[in-house]
Amino acid sequence: MNSLISIRSDFPSIQQKVNGNSVIYLDGPAGTQVPKQVLEAMNYYYTHHNSNTHGHFMASQETDQILEEVRQKVATFLNAPGSECISFGQNMTTLNYSLSKGLGRIFTPGDEIVITQLDHEANRGPWLALEELGIATREIKLLANGTLDYDSADLVINKKTKLVCVGLASNIFGTINDIARIKQKAEEVGAYLLIDAVHAAPHCSIDVQELDCDFLLCSAYKFYGPHVGLLYCRPGLLDNVPTDRLRTQESVAPYKIETGTLNHAAIAGVGAAIEFIASRGEGENLRSQLVAALEEIHQHEIKLAKALWRGLDSIPGVHLLGPPIDSPERAPTLAFTIEGLTPAEICQYLGKAGIYAWDGHFYAIRAVEVLDIMKIGGVTRMGVVVYNTMEEIDRTIREVRTLAEQTYRLRQKGSTVKS
Q1: CA gap 310, 84 in Å, rounded
Q2: 8 with 56, same domain?
Q3: With b meaning 16 or more CB within 10 Å and e meaning fewer, what string describes 18-52?
Q4: Which value, in Å, is the radius of gyration of the alpha carbons in the chain?
Q5: Which residue in 40, 65, 240, 329 could disulfide with 176, CB within 3.0 to 4.6 Å?
Q6: How far apart (Å, rounded) are the C-alpha atoms in residues 268 and 314?
Q7: Are residues 126 and 145 located together in one domain of the fold?
Q8: Percentage helix, strand, coil, to 5, in the chain?
Q9: Within 10 Å of residue 249's Cβ, how many Cβ atoms?
């Protein structure tokens, strides 16, 4: 992989300062920063190819070619059999709602859909909406350690189950789910399997053929690209889903779920983001480069995440949630609380120091409800990505320690902490 200095120089935004401090972006789980290669690709599209599709002139034909090339790159990114499996959308949520409406026309009252208590609401809400059609939803339970209760999965997945929806990785706790176990149970009852890979995509190589899923969704803005949603459908499957579409829209995969004119410049940026990741790895082709790059990126990220976890864990009053950082399968995303402070107060303090972290439930609201931490405003979340450094981690730990110690002293005096 190219040197870390080289990687950081690709991201213009990380050169900013707040109150004299260099900005530390630990907000990656909500969306990564964008490298100059992606910005340049989008700008180049607007200055050289900007047009609508299917015209009998050069710019339009170039746009058609770019869209097809990016479909193929996304297919390679996910190891899908071909570009006909890849659909574009405004975002993952919109695509999932469109898919749920289509599948809702196939399912019948009394059928069941299984969701989890750990998932982002974008992989819950679209399926809960089908209850108005008489299609029931059942939940795989969440355990206190931030992992799914697979015994409960064995109970709720049954002969009435038509679809199982699960995240590959949790965007709040960093948990990587046992997809193989869930897939086996879904297969036993003949149910479709849908995977939300939004949080996993920046951190590991995804292979839809190995996962053996029917549907998979992710978002390019989580892996250094612009705001574009991506949907994989098993070959031939989308053709049989009665999606909402205008009669002028093509009625075959992958187009039949793509409503309206797409964001062509942003899609060009998606292709550049995939190329950016691949450029960090060695290999004979794009797929092997991506696999190698994502493995090196993962090793870099998890090293920093372990240092962050251990540093925070050593601070009195800090409580970490989710699977231990040494768990063999884990994303580099941490959630924690500090006694005497709300997550919002923590993030306000860190924000003034130029450390960007998030507070709340991050749309994994069911998980926060189940663990009974909504009453304090959820958790503080930090996520490590490719451009973060050990120096940033050390500075973050120092700032959290200072805040926790200050809070402890004021609590001892019976004072109210003000950020």
Answers
A1: 45
A2: no
A3: eeeeebbbbbbbebbbbbeebbebbeebeeebebe
A4: 22
A5: 329
A6: 45
A7: yes
A8: 45, 15, 40
A9: 15
pTM: 0.96
CA 389 – CA 303 distance, rounded (Å): 10
Q: Of 230, 258, 278, which residue is a domain's last?
A: 278
**CB neighbours (10 Å) of residue 343?**
23
- Tens-of-pLDDT digits for all 419 residues of the chain? 445 557 999 999 999 999 999 999 999 999 999 999 999 999 999 999 999 999 999 999 999 999 999 999 999 999 999 999 999 999 999 999 999 999 999 999 999 999 999 999 999 999 999 999 999 999 999 999 999 999 999 999 999 999 999 999 999 999 999 999 999 999 999 999 999 999 999 999 999 999 999 999 999 999 999 999 999 999 999 999 999 999 999 999 999 999 999 999 999 999 999 999 999 999 999 999 999 999 999 999 999 999 999 999 999 999 999 999 998 889 999 999 999 999 999 999 999 999 999 999 999 999 999 999 999 999 999 999 999 999 999 999 999 999 999 988 887 776 544 44
Reading the block at residue 151, the tokens are 């015994």
How many separate domains does the chain show?
A: 2
- Residues 159, 188, single domain; the answer is yes
- Given a contact cutoff of 8 angstroms between Cβ atoms, the answer to whether 298 and 203 are in contact is yes
Burial (CB < 10 A; 0-12, 13-18, 19+), residue 151, is exposed
* Cis amide leading into 12 (omega within 30): no
DSSP 282-336: --SSHHHHHHHHHHHHHHHHHHHHHHHHHHHHTSTTEEEESS-TT-SSB-SEEEE
The H or E element that residue 181 is part of is helix 179-189
Q: Identify the domain containing residue 340 by its residue range.
A: 4-30+287-412
Task: Assess whether 370 and 252 both reside in one domain.
Answer: no
The CA distances from residue 163 to 22, 190, 192, 205, 255, in Å, are 46, 9, 5, 24, 22
Residues 217 and 327 in one domain: no
Q: Is residue 419 part of a domain?
A: no
CA triplet 329, 158, 233: central angle to 5 degrees?
60
Q: What is the CATH number of the domain that holds 80?
A: 3.40.640.10
70 and 14 fall within a common domain: no
